[in-house]
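User: Hi! I'm working on a homework problem where we have to compare a predicted structure to a textbook description. Could you give me the structure for the chain below?
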Amino acid sequence: TGVQTCALPIYHVVEPPDLFEGRLAAKHAEVAPRLVRKESGIDVWQFMGAELPNIGLNAVAGRPPEEYAMDPQSFDDMRTGCYDIHDRVKDMDANGLLGSMCFPSFPQFCGQLFARAALKDEELATELVRAYNDWHIESWCGAYPGRFIPLSIPMMWNVEKMADEVRRVAEKGCFAVTFSENPVHLGFPSIHSGHWDPFFAVCEEVGTVVNVHIGSSSKMMITADDAPMDVLITLSPINIVQAAADFVWSPVAKKFPKLKYALSEGGIGWLPYFRERIDYTYERHRFWTGQDMGDRRPSQVIDEQVILCWIDDPVGVEMRHKMNIDMICWECDYPHSDSSWPQSPEQFLKQVQAAGCSDEEIDKISHRNAMRLFNYDPFSILGRENCTVGALRAQAEGWDVSIVARSEEHTSELQSRFGISYAV
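Assistant: Happy to help. Predicted structure tokens:
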């Protein structure tokens, strides 16, 4: 109970209905995304003629795995901690988790929704991104100082505006921004093109970490149209491996050697082989590919600039000596289907103890790395003695963390409305 687990579990926020209230000019408030409950009972965000539901797997915390599904949800189906900041902190306390960094949901991981909107109304899209970032920094993270690492979304359609927004939110204390694992799939230039250099330059200058989440290219790995969903879920981390290769071989790492590039939810078990492969590739092929890394090897780029995160990866933890342990962070994924909530510290400790991690290694992976890399210092705000698993859980004594199944009546209703089949 004395372990500060964990300074950086990757979380996700399900945005509340009042997200944009009081943050937009009148003409934009009228056309901004708004949450609507349909006759079917599900809640959707309506924006520019489109409907954006909350996908079931995005908010299954508190449900048994037998009920995980892709069906749309209403807010009534979710734990209130998914979208209510006060209950979110209670869920964190009950899980013994000190802090978190929350990726967006309905705007998508790197604000793809607003980038598409910019094609029709750039002024509106610009104000929506700023309003979203202000809400996230001030109302979500700001409600509980020391408990969150603010994470902004970018204006992907305009690299100069992206850079300006990084500066603007840095002045508000936000030193993390989302980005796409492969912007080419979103219709933008690759990171090899030099197009994004103004954005990367400012991130390096102010110390903002560029965060790349699996799925942030709006494209996931699948082998065939009729392949089962299990194939996609299994291959999800492959997106991150591709993003790692892109970064290592791009000019970005050489132009901005102090830039930090975080790869979220991709695991670490693949990293030892990847490090060996990129060094082997460089040694054998650089003469004809024209690759020049200067005085660094490719594995040094990974070790010095790329932050890796894992949820459940016993093999990766066992092989920690074949990677830079100072660039590894553990994550939780609440309220998604891979989350270990509400027993995250127990799951974490089981893996690190099985791998024979020392106390120093546990401290690094659980909180010290994240605090250093993300400019995050909760101890100075909350007091170190209040940041342990035991102290946090004591604050949530009596808070209900039971796993609750949908009622049979509710399940039957969803089956009839949407044709959903639940495993039992």
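For your comparison, note the following. The longest helix spans residues 122-141. Residues 33 and 424 are 36 Å apart (CA to CA). Good luck with the assignment!
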